Amino acid sequence: MFRSSGTYRHRAVTLAAVAAISAGLLAGCANDSDDETGSSGGGKGGNKGGTTITVGTFGVFGYKQAGLYDEYMKLHPDINIEETSIERNENYYPQLLTHLGAGSGLADIQAIEIANITEIKTTQADKFVDLSKAPGVKKDNWLSWKWAQGTTEDGKTIGLGTDIGPMAICYRKDLFQQAGLPTDRTEVAKLWAGDWNKYIETGKKYMKKAPGDTTFVDSAGGVYNAVISSNAKRYYDESGKVIYKDSPAVKEAWELATTASQDKLTAKLQQFQKSWDQAFSNGKFATVSCPPWMLGHIKEKAGDKAKDQWDVAAAPRPGNWGGSFIGVPKASKHQEEAIKLAAWLTAPEQQAKVFEKQASWPSSQAAYSLPQVGDAKHPYFGNAPIGKIFAEAAKGIPTQVLGPKDQIIGSNIADIGLLQVDQQGKSPKDAWKAATKTIDNALDQ
Fold first, then answer.
1. What CATH number belongs to 168-290+405-442?
2. So where are the chain's domains?
3. Is the whole-model pTM more than 0.90?
4. Which Gene3D superfamilies match (predicted)?
């Protein structure tokens, strides 16, 4: 399920290819249709007559691709399922808000991106069904922090978690070896265990013997996103106040990212741009922060020549980059049946099937004991035990305080501030001023 997430996956939506894990390929991002508002009826016309449940999504959620709609309709011959997907969340979400405001035009099930879940909880919760006690929904199936993200302060769960993006570090074994660093994934993880500062220090060691014109990491923005994503309190406090200017997490992430740039550890790239893709192909950098959905992107862009050169190691601290929810609007025409379908689609067994087909990492911790998740290995990455690596990361992710404008704040820090440091050589002080000015204007502060 590869869509806009956190700071920032919206650029990735059209870039990485989808492929089955069973064929040795972890999926990246893909278009659900050629049209911006394409309809992709996973079960359209599957059962004659009966009740038609509509599902509104953005990007690719993988339910159709994993055959779940067809499976559900076989189990329920009186049900038809029709999915409509808008490619980009930045187009999908404003339409969702418009329909919620009007109380019409809504699908029976609507997807909600992680960057928008707080705004939906605080301003639109009364428009959604409370799923906390719905038949088939077991709170303990989900990671506690994921359940909390979709639940209001008064205990109403308006969104059931679909995927998440636990982070690891993908690294080039061949480049590490040439730079005199260990290559075994366990030993590599020890280099920076518990501390992002150690990751930067490892980068400095790498650059002393860096082969050719390679660098340690792809971009300052990538470093920032990895560090900030491993913190609980970032841009907002628990009361909903914007605190990014004084946030210790933002300060840490900014300082490490600018240090990486100024010490020439970065390839001065911008993630999800053509030059970034080409750098994978040309082997220009040795590490990149990677959630499960990133693995397919690396495989596609680095190509067959880099097979067994890339590997996966645990990140310094667990962090999350990505994830979504599905909810049932109260305006649903078939509310009871929609609730049953939403519960079934997000059950551990179905999340495992979506992972197997789409590499969408389950938010259901109960799915981690299922073989297709827990025992998953990736041939392209030296048979890395990704099931174990990402499950361990997922369990350690802090419960993040999310705000309604997280995406605006994070993307401007990366794309305005850090890009000026990395590509234009501006001082961190001047770049920070430029970023905060843009953010404050966007937040009307």
1. 3.40.190.10
2. 9-165+322-387, 168-290+405-442
3. no
4. Periplasmic binding protein-like II
